[in-house]
Amino acid sequence: MGDRNAPGAVQVITEPDYEAMIIGAHPDDDDFGAGATSALWAKQGKKVVWVVMTNGVEGGEAPDMDDEEFMLTREQEQRAAAEVYGVKAVEFLRFPDGHLTNNEETRKAIVRLIRKYRPRVVLTHDPSTFLMAPDPNEEPEATGHINHPDHRATGSIVLDAIFPYVGNPRSYRDLIAQGYMPYRVHELYLFYTERSNTYVDVTETIDIKAQGLKCHVTQFGPDVDFSSSLRERAAKTAKEAKEKLNLDMQFAEAFRRVKLHIPPTPADEAPTEVAE
Ligand SMILES: [Zn+2]
């Protein structure tokens, strides 16, 4: 940490503007990862922004489909879904789907957006999840899958952006010159994780998640109905919340929560009395 009284020192902002920024690799990842939580927070009047890292053009089965047209269609679907959840803003970064890497350009794009919206909480993919695979001894009929490399790349880009860059007045000074000031993110919530420690009660909004996902017609067709599968999965997550933390919920979304900055309370700031 540098000297905040140094000549020309810039104060790092700790006061958030938005409550949450959800950052997913593809259109529909923000929905699956934190759709019901987003809808709940939006219902509570909190400002939520979604970010989509890639253009989504590899999420289809027809090789001849025009990329530009497909990208725009998926963005339109994502905007429609965001509206269902009550999300205030959506940002599309349009990096190449299927080929996302943690590099200078992708990190800088995220630094800019976090400094722009100043979310209290950032939600993104857990970059340490390589496999999502049940133990065949416990669930012999279930198949596992390999976590998409774009999901892992997104998680690692976002974590690197948050630390060390977003809050560092000497990082990305060209962004600072444009008004994107250094900012300290308070908390991180990771989804698609196998190390959940936080459960959000989404009983009120689980059906909104099903409605939002219906907007992604290019992915699931016009007649998809996720309501029972989502309820089933969220009930399983709620059961895990009961087992792990003794929480009573009907439907839940799970995250690995990390606290990065705890704002001082007024009591902390009050002058300390010196014992005589
Ligand atoms: Zn994805």
TrEMBL record:
Highest taxon above the source species: Bacteria
Gene Ontology terms for molecular function: hydrolase activity, acting on carbon-nitrogen (but not peptide) bonds, in linear amides
Signal sequence coordinates: none
PANTHER family noted in UniProt: LMBE FAMILY PROTEIN, N-ACETYLGLUCOSAMINYL-PHOSPHATIDYLINOSITOL DE-N-ACETYLASE-RELATED
Protein name: GlcNAc-PI de-N-acetylase
Origin species: Ktedonospora formicarum
